[in-house]
Amino acid sequence: MSDQPFSFTIPFPGFKPSRADNHIERHLSDLRGQFLDQHAYKTMLSEEDTLLYEVYEIKRPEIEGELLSGISIVHPGKVGNEFFMTKGHFHTILETAEMYYCLNGEGFMVMETPEGETFIEALSPGKVLYVPPRWAHRSVCTSRQEDLVTFFIYPGNSGHNYGTIEEKGFRKLVVENEKGIEIIDNPKFKE
Ligand code: PAN
Ligand code: ZN
Q1: Atom of ligand 1 at shortest distance to CA of 88?
Q2: pLDDT tens, 118-166?
Q3: Of all protein residues, whose CA lies closest to atom 2 belonging to ligand 1?
Q4: Does residue 7 sit within a domain?
Q5: How far is ligand 1, taken at its centre, from the CA of residue 88, in Å?
Q6: Which CATH number covers residue 37?
Q7: I need a surface site. Which of 13, 57, 131, 161 has the fewest CB within 10 A?
C-alpha cells in the first residue's frame, strides 16, 4: 500500500513546522575543534554549553525516490569573532544535491567540493539555494539578533558524512573584524 500525500505548515513568524517527527538540538560541545579561536571556545564552553542550532525533521524512509525535508534554525552569536554555524557535512552518497529556501535572518552557506573548490552564498529571506551534488555545506548565521531559518529538501538516500569536516574543517570561515563581516581562509584547514 502506498503512503498518502501529506501537508504541513511553517508559521510566520516562529517557523516551527506544524509537523515534525524529530527535533535535533546542537550545542557548542557538538562543534569541538571547528571554531578558530579555541581559547574563546573553551572559555565559553566552561560557562555554558550554548545551543547553537536546531533542526526540525520531517521523517521519510531513507531510500532513493523519497525526499527528506525540514527546518534549520541557527541562532545568532559568535565564538570569538566567528559566527555560530552548523557542523556541516558532505552527503554520504556524494552525488546527491539539496535545496535550501531562506525564511528568516541573514547569513551564508559555506560550500566546498572534495577537490577544493569553494563557494559562499549569502542567505536572506526569499533566497533559494541549490547545493549541487558533491558540495559540502554549512550554514552560518550573521544576524545580530535574529535566527537564520532555512527550509531544506534532499534525497532520501543521501546520508550524512560528518567525519570529513570534523577532521579537516572547511576551507573558508565567516568572521567579523574591524572591516565588518569577512570570509577568510581557515588557517587550520587540513589538506
Ligand atoms: C540539513 C542540515 C541541517 C543541520 O538538514 O542537516 O541544516 O546541519 P548539520 O547536519 O550539518 O548539523 C542538511 O543539509 N541535510 O542534508
Ligand atoms: Zn545536507
Answers
A1: 11
A2: 999 999 999 999 999 999 999 999 999 999 999 999 999 999 999 999 9
A3: 72
A4: no
A5: 6
A6: 2.60.120.10
A7: 13
